[in-house]
Amino acid sequence: DGGITQSPKYLFRKEGQNVTLSCEQNLNHDAMYWYRQDPGQGLRLIYYSQIVNDFQKGDIAEGYSVSREKKESFPLTVTSAQKNPTAFYLCASSPPGHQAGYTFGSGTRLTVV
Amino acid sequence: GQSLEQPSEVTAVEGAIVQINCTYQTSGFYGLSWYQQHDGGAPTFLSYNALDGLEETGRFSSFLSRSDSYGYLLLQELQMKDSASYFCAAGDKIIFGKGTRLHILP
What is the pLDDT of residue A113? Predict the structure, then answer.
């Protein structure tokens, strides 16, 4: 079955460390996205990529970095520059257009300890 | 700036009908989408309206009025499993509202 796989499901980070969240899709979608969700809040866009080797900043890109070396993969690195990284991180992908909507992974819950 | 406004919470009774409203202000509007998210889970796509009018998919319907920058999600014959948060989304870089938590009473 096609879908998006995010790993790990739970991640604990010490202050000052960088961590990388994995996102892999086998839907053959060109576009991929990273969102952050805080309790009781909507989803805020961190980065998005519409094609391999290209990505754009979203509304809250500071303290994050991404790469898109393969169509299937869009990893997100949370750097030590991100002052409040504890959150639920969601990766999504979509085909061209908006009719089919986004397909989301099951998310990674990051906690700073 | 871009924003989508929706009520934070709605309560309804099992078997009833509930409407969740969304007003939007976005750049590059192509249509309005709706997503459902259960606690701890990932959002799942429910519907998309590109044109004015009502789209029906089973118990769920979605409406759009582009002239009013307004849409709604209508849930009929509510079931306990419909208890979740519902998000509207729009824009050229898709942005999401803060979500409406739907509480269903038996």
Answer: 85
Q: For residue A99, give the chain B residue with the closest CA.
A: B48
- The predicted-structure confidence for B15-68, as pLDDT tens digits, reads as follows 999 999 999 998 778 899 999 999 989 999 999 999 999 999 899 999 999 999
Residue A40 has pLDDT above 80, yes or no: no
B80/A contact by beta carbon, under 8 A:
no
- The burial class, CB within 10 Å (0-12 / 13-18 / 19+), for B43 is buried
* Contact between A6 and B63 (Cβ < 8 Å): no
Q: What residues form DSSP beta bridges with B25?
A: B3
- Beta-carbon neighbour count of residue B72 at 10 Å? 21
> Using CB atoms within 10 A of its CB, is residue B106 exposed (0-12), middle (13-18) or buried (19+)?
exposed
The verdict on A64 touching B (C-beta cutoff 8 Å) is no
Q: What is the mean pLDDT of residues A43-48?
A: 95
Residue B68, min C-alpha distance to chain A (Å) = 21
